[in-house]
Specification:
The chain has 14 helices and 5 strands. Strands 2-1-3-4-5 form a 5-stranded parallel β-sheet, with helices on both faces. It has about 300 residues and is of the alpha/beta class.
Length: about 300
Amino acid sequence: MTSTSNPRDLQSQLESLTTEAFRPELADIDQLPTLDIARLMNGEDASVAAAVSRRLPQIAAAIDAIADRMARGGRLVYAGAGTAGRLGVLDASECPPTFNTDPAQVVGLIAGGPEAMVTSVEGAEDSAELARADLDGLALMPDDTVVGISASGRTPYAVAAVEHARAQGALTVGLSCNADSALAAAADHGIEVVVGPELLTGSTRLKAGTAQKLVLNMLSTITMIRLGKTYGNLMVDVRASNEKLRARSRRIVALATGADDEEVESALSATDGEVKNAILTILADVDGPTAARLLVESDGHLRAALAATTR
């Protein structure tokens, strides 16, 4: 299961990575006052957004390709190990409550399985075989997208996931935090957000992890915008699974329509709590079943459904 590469070769590889570089100017950080360390760390974090901004064209190109495939029924699959894998699982798990996606539509794979979310699974990140087996369990299709995530850009699990997915005809994205990475080279769309050496040498849960979180936010959120999961900046596909989200649903309908509380409640009742449908019943003055039909005919895009009622 685990890699048999020479430890000295691996050490040499790590020493060449920007994310693993040692910063001698921070060698006495443990002797600084807490506030000074916090200021240093905050300054480091402030540089991450600029690093992401330098890769916006590549990010946008990947999003357009992902959205095109998801519109045809494809899935978005994240694959990574350690922090990178956890971030992918986190992003995937937030899509159903935020955008009312099917849990199988955005999937997070972490080397070592669910147990690895809270504890280290020895050797899992070094196993290309495990990556292939995890993806085979999903029965990949050409309209699926696999995003390999790895700060170093060399993690065997992430690289193998991308290589295997591409061989299956799926779209692939490689997200790393080092230039000229094996992961980006293996993917259709390489995104290398170079954030530089970490405050703590090699601790890529810091700036690299923040950069990965920002990019994953973009990949999922903007893809969902392209798929019609929002109306303006309102989450009209939100799933009201608790009292907070039910209150948010009522507020979204009110913001989108300008309707009073009574009309909002009536619309949500007529559409079984579906926010997008409720908005359509108010703005287009149609009943619940008609709203549902119009949205199906418009592939879930509220603006297109509204336009269809004015033709």
